[in-house]
Amino acid sequence: MGNLYLIVTFPPTGGREITIFSLYTVINIIYNTSMNDRQKKHRDDIRLKILNSATKLFEEKGIEFVTMRKIAAEIKYTPTTIYLYYKNKEELLYEIANKKIDILTEELRRISNDNNKTFLVSLIRTYFNFFVKNKKYFYLYSDITTGRLRVDDLKRNSLVNAPLYSFGRVFDSIVMQGVKNEDYTDSLYLLWSFMNGIVEIELNPAMEEMVDIDKITNRFAEFIINSYIVI
C-alpha cells in the first residue's frame, strides 16, 4: 500500500497554497505531543509528591529533619531521584516556604478599608497572626530572607516582596489622596522589619508579656501614616 497523505489548504476557504502531509507524519506529531503531555504530567506529579512529603516532614519534625534521604525513604524513591527534581535541600525548603507565603499573600489581598490607619493595622495584624499561628514557617521564612539559608537572590527577594504588595496599597491610597507623593520603598521595608520584630517578640516566652502588641501596632501605624502627611 502506498503512503497516505493529508492535504491541507490555506486559507481554509480555498486558495493556491497547498500543504501535503504524510498521514504517518500527522499521526507521529499527535502521538509525540500526547507523550510529551503525559511525561510532563508525570514529572509534575513526582515533583509535587516530593514537595508534599518534604512539607509533611517539616511541619511534623522541623527543618533539620528535611533531608533528601528522609524524603526518599518516605515516598519509596532513591535519593538520586529526589535530586533530579530538586538540586538541594535549600531549594526544597524555599518551595515549602513559598507555598505557605502564597496563602498569606492571598489573606492580605482580601483585606481592604477606606481608612488608611485601620487598613494598615488590619494588614499588620493579619501578618502577625499568620506567623504566630505558623511558628515553624516564620523561622523558615526568616532563615531564607536573612540569608541564613542560601537560596537564589531572586527567590529570596520574591519571598520578602510577595506579602508587601498588599501593604503597598495603603501607600498608594495615601498618594491618591494627594497627601504626599514620593517613593515609599524604604517605608515598606521599615514596616516589614517592624512586623517581623513583633512576631519575634510574641514567639519569645521571655518577652511576650513585656510588650502590648496591639498598642505598639497602633502607634507604629500612626507613625507610618503621619510620616506621609505634608505639614
What value does the Rg take, in angstroms? 26 Å
Topology order in helix (H) and strand (E) letters: EEHHHHHHHHH
How many H/I helical runs? 9
Number of strands: 2
Low-confidence runs of at least 5 consecutive residues? 5-10, 16-20
Mean pLDDT: 83
Helix content: 55-70%
- Remind me, CATH topology of the largest domain? Tetracycline Repressor, domain 2
* Shape annotation: globular
Name the CATH architecture of the largest domain. Answer: Orthogonal Bundle
The helix-and-strand class reads mainly alpha
Output the CATH class name of the largest domain: Mainly Alpha
Biggest sheet: strand arrangement: 1-2
Protein name: HTH tetR-type domain-containing protein
Keywords: Coiled coil, DNA-binding
InterPro entries: Homeodomain-like_sf, HTH-type_Tx_Regulator, HTH_TetR, Tet_transcr_reg_TetR-rel_C_sf
Coiled coil: 87-114
Give the structure's gist in a few sentences:
Residues 67-86 bind DNA. The protein has 231 residues and is mainly α.
